[in-house]
């Protein structure tokens, strides 16, 4: 039997429609559109594509987009000065500094400089702390998008065995925190995990966030499990995930494709965080 393919594009389109309704309600109540500032340093082509699509999606959702493109040799002080200006700008509700930054810049110092109430990426230590404590905050977009997909497919996640492969600060760790908050029983696996195959085999939910092409074969997947593949790997055969889709689709109950699975949800969740941040800053209630 073949798995249900989770259509991330369709999920994201529905989420963006709901966000547009909330963005319009915010604009009506606040007398201005919610605003997202995106900062790109340097010429990395993949980053340039992401920044362009974030800007387009922001405008399509009825929000204002402010793009700041800085040369690759921008120094730390200049970038900090821009972040400070955006922190102080009342028209800016969300600030996103596109990663990776050129190697001479201290990314941690920049991300910590962003006002935590405008930190729509959810990477500021204050938002990481809020997530761990179960307090309202801004949650990293990619793992939040994965959680929404899982809840759409499975409903209540209580008691399910979830294995997150990968422990990065931007995907693996916040994913594990969100699944724990949703009452799943969570295992975090990584490069030092012993017998990864056996760990993955007991999972009702597998979230793969490694960055190694097709490293999880179908025979590691428990029959009927739900598989969320975060990996984006460029190969000669095109973009592939961390899961071997062709074999996993024969065993899983539901699975995300790459591309067209998690990726579209990430941008939709960024828009959601922007309208949520705007509403909190202005004290406007939202229905989402
Ligand atoms: P990182 O490189 O920061 O983290 C990778 C994690 O995988 C690490 O925790 C590492 O373990 C673990 N790992 C590496 N090799 C193995 C192995 N052989 N077995 C088990 N675990 C292993 O990556 P990110 O979290 O930033 O990204 C992961 C993937 O997700 C990438 O392909 C990235 O492109 C993609 N991505 C996709 C997004 C989207 O919107 N769809 C957004 C963000 C990322 P250790 O800690 O021990 O080194």
Automatic annotation (TrEMBL):
Q: GO molecular function terms here?
A: methenyltetrahydrofolate cyclohydrolase activity; methylenetetrahydrofolate dehydrogenase (NADP+) activity
Instruction: Cite a single Pfam family from the UniProt record.
Output: THF_DHG_CYH_C
Tell me the GO BP annotations in alphabetical order: L-histidine biosynthetic process; methionine biosynthetic process; purine nucleotide biosynthetic process; tetrahydrofolate interconversion
- The question of whether Electron transport is a record keyword is answered with no
Annotated InterPro entries: Aminoacid_DH-like_N_sf (IPR046346), NAD(P)-bd_dom_sf (IPR036291), THF_DH/CycHdrlase (IPR000672), THF_DH/CycHdrlase_cat_dom (IPR020630), THF_DH/CycHdrlase_CS (IPR020867), THF_DH/CycHdrlase_NAD-bd_dom (IPR020631)
Q: Which GO terms describe its cellular component?
A: cytosol
Domain Tetrahydrofolate dehydrogenase/cyclohydrolase NAD(P)-binding, by residue range, is 140-280
From the UniProt record, list the coiled-coil ranges: none
Question: Span of the secretion signal?
Answer: none
Q: Which residues form the Tetrahydrofolate dehydrogenase/cyclohydrolase catalytic domain?
A: 6-121
- Keyword terms: Amino-acid biosynthesis, Histidine biosynthesis, Hydrolase, Methionine biosynthesis, Multifunctional enzyme, NADP, One-carbon metabolism, Oxidoreductase, Purine biosynthesis
Protein's UniProt keywords contain Amino-acid biosynthesis: yes
Give me the reactions it catalyses: (6R)-5,10-methenyltetrahydrofolate + H2O = (6R)-10-formyltetrahydrofolate + H(+); (6R)-5,10-methylene-5,6,7,8-tetrahydrofolate + NADP(+) = (6R)-5,10-methenyltetrahydrofolate + NADPH
Q: In which pathway does it act?
A: One-carbon metabolism; tetrahydrofolate interconversion
Binding residues annotated for NADP(+), in chain numbering: 166-168, 232
Q: Give the EC number(s) listed in the UniProt record.
A: 1.5.1.5, 3.5.4.9
Task: Output the NCBIfam families linked to this UniProt entry.
Answer: PRK10792.1, PRK14186.1, PRK14188.1
Per the entry, what this protein does is:
Catalyzes the oxidation of 5,10-methylenetetrahydrofolate to 5,10-methenyltetrahydrofolate and then the hydrolysis of 5,10-methenyltetrahydrofolate to 10-formyltetrahydrofolate.
Looking up PANTHER family in the UniProt record yields: C-1-TETRAHYDROFOLATE SYNTHASE, CYTOPLASMIC, C-1-TETRAHYDROFOLATE SYNTHASE, CYTOPLASMIC-RELATED
Oligomeric state and interaction partners are given as:
Homodimer.
In which family does this protein belong, per the annotation?
Answer: Belongs to the tetrahydrofolate dehydrogenase/cyclohydrolase family.
The protein's name in its UniProt record: Bifunctional protein FolD
Q: Which organism is it from?
A: Sphingomonas aracearum
């Amino acid at each position: 039997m073949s798995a249900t393919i989770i259509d991330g594009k369709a999920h994201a389109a529905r989420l963006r429609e709901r966000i547009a309704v909330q963005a319009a309600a915010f604009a009506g109540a606040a007398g201005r559109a919610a605003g997202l500032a995106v900062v790109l340093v340097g010429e990395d082509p993949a980053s340039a594509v992401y920044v362009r699509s974030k800007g387009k999606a922001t405008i399509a959702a009825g929000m204002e987009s402010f793009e700041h493109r800085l040369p690759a040799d921008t120094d730390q002080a200049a970038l900090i000065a821009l972040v400070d200006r955006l922190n102080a700008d009342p028209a800016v509700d969300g600030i996103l500094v596109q990663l990776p930054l050129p190697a001479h810049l201290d990314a941690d110092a920049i991300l910590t400089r962003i006002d935590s109430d405008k930190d729509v990426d959810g990477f500021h230590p204050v938002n990481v702390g809020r997530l761990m404590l179960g307090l309202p905050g801004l949650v990293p977009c990619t793992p939040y998008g994965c959680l929404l997909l899982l809840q759409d497919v499975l409903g209540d996640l209580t008691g399910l065995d979830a294995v997150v492969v990968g422990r990065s600060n931007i995907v693996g760790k916040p994913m594990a925190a969100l699944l724990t908050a949703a009452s799943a029983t969570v295992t975090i696996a990584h490069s030092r995990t012993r017998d990864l195959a056996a760990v993955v085999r007991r999972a009702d939910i597998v979230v793969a966030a490694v960055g190694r092409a097709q490293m999880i074969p179908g025979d590691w997947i428990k029959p009927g499990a739900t598989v969320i593949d975060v990996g984006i790997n460029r190969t000669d055969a095109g973009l592939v995930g961390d899961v071997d889709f062709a074999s996993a689709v024969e065993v899983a109950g539901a699975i995300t494709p790459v591309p067209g699975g998690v990726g579209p949800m990430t941008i939709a969740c960024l828009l959601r965080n922007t309208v949520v941040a705007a509403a909190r800053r202005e004290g406007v209630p939202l229905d989402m």
